[in-house]
């Protein structure tokens, strides 16, 4: 037997791969095939790998590659980062330099691309510590974008507060992947939309709205809420309704269900207003800086230099670029861990345990990667750049603190390890993954439930 844990039924019972009852040794045993529920008692054919996996050996091979890649990082990785920073900044600068002349798709696309890549490539990997040990402190996670408004404006100015992103993404998402505590679990976050009885047209109209607004409508307030909860817990406090709330609620603990509930702009009105943070603080500290620079300062400069028409063209271009960068980011972010061929889990896996490494693979998906063979170079980088370097999610979740160059090297190695151990390694076009994600959001399909009976008791906390 492998490290997967105790076996709920013997081999005779597991031969019956269908729902219903089976007679085993003269007794009637109810069989529940894996896939739709955590309490499955027998494995569906596509889950047969679970029983065969040697978790300990799998972890050892994955950890060995991660260590080798980390030890190899150095000047080449920093030079590669600087090249990508140059591409990202150049996209933004060309967009800014041309947006005033006419409202055109090239300027809009470049503005959008510059915004997205500054987040998903530069900030993402630096904030994970991918360059802490090889950049002489220039790109350090404890300095990048944090501590002051000046650092935020210089390093990464976006709708989200960098400190909030670091807690929500680096801590909760990466160490609770696929669990109910994962703040980026799309199927859970959009449960109300999945269950919505409205017609398909209205359902998918909401999906489109969410795609083009999600960074400021959902991600900024939700990451700030996570940061606020983190600070409360660190100080030994619980979340309560503010003193100026309705007398019925003032000073009382917030409902338990609110703690894991997605927090959007819409939650900042009514009884939930000012619960986790003051609205005034959120709009001034979180959204305010990016809004002022992006939609007041930049078009204002264009207007001063080139006149009223240039101001109008610049503002319209920036607004359209904002909608596009939201949609582009949704395409490559929301699809990373969503689909009916990926798993959700019951119970929390101990970080860096054998189960933890397995979960990172089977709850993540890769898109087309570089040249597909682990090669590096400008052409491979273009493929990865356009996908925000989020096309290496499997490798990134195994070792979050590596460089982009290391992920290119790691991809074929991890794929081979998974093939050797029979672990599902999902890699498909980002457009295929988008269709599967929309299917999950619309309630037409669901993610697979990893059967709790096969959790390792040593690795998983209930």
Automatic annotation (TrEMBL):
Superkingdom is: Eukaryota
GO aspect biological process, one term: lipid metabolic process
- Cellular location of this protein? Membrane
Q: Which UniProt keywords apply?
A: Heme, Iron, Lipid metabolism, Membrane, Metal-binding, Oxidoreductase, Transmembrane, Transmembrane helix
Name of the protein described by the UniProt record: Fatty acid desaturase domain-containing protein
Q: Does the keyword Lyase apply?
A: no
The pathway that the record names for this protein is: Lipid metabolism
Domain Fatty acid desaturase: residue ranges: 109-427
Give the membrane topology, semicolon-separated if more than one: Multi-pass membrane protein
The portions of this protein that span the membrane are: 286-309
Q: Which GO terms describe its cellular component?
A: membrane
Q: Which family does it belong to?
A: Belongs to the fatty acid desaturase type 1 family.
Extract the InterPro entries matched here: FA_desaturase_dom, Fatty_acid_desaturase
What GO MF terms are annotated? metal ion binding; oxidoreductase activity, acting on paired donors, with oxidation of a pair of donors resulting in the reduction of molecular oxygen to two molecules of water
Against Pfam families, the record matches this protein to: FA_desaturase
Give the chief site where it resides.
membrane
């Amino acid at each position: 037997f492998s490290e997967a844990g105790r076996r709920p039924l013997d081999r005779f019972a597991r031969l019956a791969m269908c729902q219903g009852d089976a007679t085993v040794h003269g007794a009637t045993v109810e069989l529940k095939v894996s896939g739709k529920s955590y309490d499955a008692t027998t494995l569906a054919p596509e889950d047969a790998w679970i029983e065969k996996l040697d978790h300990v050996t799998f972890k050892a091979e994955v950890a060995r590659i991660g260590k080798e890649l980390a030890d190899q990082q150095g000047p080449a990785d920093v030079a590669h980062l600087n090249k990508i920073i140059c591409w990202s900044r150049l996209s933004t600068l060309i967009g800014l330099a041309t947006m005033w002349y006419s409202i055109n798709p090239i300027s809009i696309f470049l503005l959008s691309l510059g915004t997205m890549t500054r987040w998903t490539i530069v900030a993402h990997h630096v904030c994970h510590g991918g360059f802490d040990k090889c950049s002489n402190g220039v790109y350090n996670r404890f300095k990048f974008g944090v501590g002051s408004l000046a650092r935020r404006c210089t390093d990464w100015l976006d709708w989200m507060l960098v400190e909030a992103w670091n807690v929500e993404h680096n801590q909760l998402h990466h160490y609770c992947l696929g669990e109910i505590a994962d703040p980026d679990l799309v199927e859970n976050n959009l449960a109300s939309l999945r269950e919505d009885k409205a017609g398909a047209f209205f359902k998918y109209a909401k999906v489109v709205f969410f795609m083009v607004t999600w960074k400021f409508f959902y991600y900024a307030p939700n990451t700030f809420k996570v940061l606020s909860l983190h600070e409360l817990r660190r100080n030994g406090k619980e979340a309560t309704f503010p003193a100026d709330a309705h007398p019925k609620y003032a000073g009382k603990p917030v409902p338990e269900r609110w703690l894991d509930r997605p927090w959007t702009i819409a939650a900042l009105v009514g009884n939930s207003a000012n619960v986790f943070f003051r609205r005034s603080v959120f709009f001034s500290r979180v959204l305010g800086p990016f809004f002022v620079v992006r939609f007041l300062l930049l078009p204002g400069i264009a207007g001063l230099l080139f006149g009223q028409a240039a101001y109008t063209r610049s503002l319209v271009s920036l607004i359209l670029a904002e909608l596009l960068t939201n949609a582009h980011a949704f395409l490559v972010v929301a699809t990373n861990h969503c689909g009916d061929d990926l798993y959700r889990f019951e119970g929390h896996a101990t970080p860096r345990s054998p189960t933890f490494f397995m979960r990172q693979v089977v709850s993540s998906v890769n898109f087309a990667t570089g040249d597909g063979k682990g090669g590096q170079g400008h052409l491979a980088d273009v493929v990865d750049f356009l996908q925000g370097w989020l096309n290496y999610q499997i490798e990134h979740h195994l070792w979050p603190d590596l460089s982009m160059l290391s992920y290119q090297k790691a991809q074929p190695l991890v794929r081979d390890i998974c093939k050797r151990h029979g672990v599902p390694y999902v890699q498909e076009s980002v457009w295929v993954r988008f269709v599967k994600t929309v299917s999950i959001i619309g309630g037409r399909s669901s993610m697979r439930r990893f059967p709790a009976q096969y959790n390792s008791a040593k690795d998983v906390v209930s």
